[in-house]
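User: My instructor asked us to take a sequence, write out its structure as tokens, and then describe one feature of it. I'm not sure where to start. Here is the sequence I was given:
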Amino acid sequence: MDKSQHQVLLAHPGTQYAPRLAAELHRHGALGRFATGFALSDESWLGRMERLVPAAISRRWAARRVRSVPAARLRTFPQLEGAAVRRLRRGEPAETVLAERNEAFQRAIPTAWIEEASHVIGFDTSSWMLAERAQELDRPFILDQSIGHPKAKERIYAELRTRFPEWAETVPQKTDEHLGREQREHNLAVAILAPSRFVRRTLVEYGVEEEKIHVIPFGTDLKLFAPAQSAPAGPVVFLFVGSLSARKGVPVLLSAWREAKLAGRAELWFAGGGRVPPSAMEATSSVRWLGALGRSELADTMRRAHVLVCPSFFEGLAQVQVEAMAAGLPVIGTTASGADEIVTPGETGFVLEPGNVAALAAALRKLTGDAGERGTMRERCIESRDCLSWARYGKRWRGFLRSMDHGGGDRGSVLEAIFE
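Assistant: Let's start with the prediction itself. The structure tokens for your sequence are:
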């Protein structure tokens, strides 16, 4: 690729996986600027100082580290992020706080940054104004759609509130105004990058042109999420990672665990924050609640587990599945968790329909009782690690940007460029 050709403005008010995309774009010579809320560059004085602080403090900043991106290409708005954090700690509604932060972030981006960019990449829920500004300045706007269509999400959420009333507070509701903003992002994008076919299906279902949508699954840090030298001994450990919510399928997993009757032979570990209804905690055995874990703690926990369980009702591509496979854990996922992007059913795990308690209980029993199959699946997960890297993710993005140079409208040429 001609490194002078692409100078992308990448804009994300939080972090999520955006720093990884920024690093990959820079590696391929395509990053102009990475604009975000609060982040630490390795080259900044604060980034250098971070290496000297105690590990307990350093872990808090881990998600804010932007590695392999020069400080000159990183632009931050820490005052916006700080104000949002303070409001969230006061108990203000997250949907309102984050929407207002996202709007302020978009307003704060100087026009000159858009003018100097060859492409503008924004993220769902935080790009409706940025997309309009890019269009006015004749810059192609690319939407990184991290999760399924918001109207599909609201439909699923309504069903979850009815099915699991005790968990209703874990299923927030978006306003029509917020839904309209995301619709503007879809309309104004010249292309939409989705992490899974599940996301693409939901977008098409609600009227987004299929020709706009291209699927590039996430990668992970293969050094951090490395497998143990051998599978751990002791009872079979099934690990859940994520917010303790109805959307993530926690009530379904607890029901399946009770139905499977695996006490004494297996354990179920929950890693994540959130409030579980007291009745749900009392009605289970052989269950451990680990709380929220830092990245290094999560990687260590995965090396002590045997199988990851991700029974989600709605995702983009739940990244813990990628991390688990890189660590050698077979994955029990769902068609809505994005698992079918990375899991080969029967070889590296199972892909179930969300909400199917009986099928989930059967998968738990099968992997508990068949050590040979668990071992074979573990080996196949480890063999697939090279396909799970951030480098592969970056290469596919590079191919996509190259396809944009040739019009980007021919799906065959797009796929050829992405997967060459």
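For the description part of your assignment, you could build on this observation: The first helix runs from residue 18 to 27. Try explaining in your own words what that tells you about the chain.
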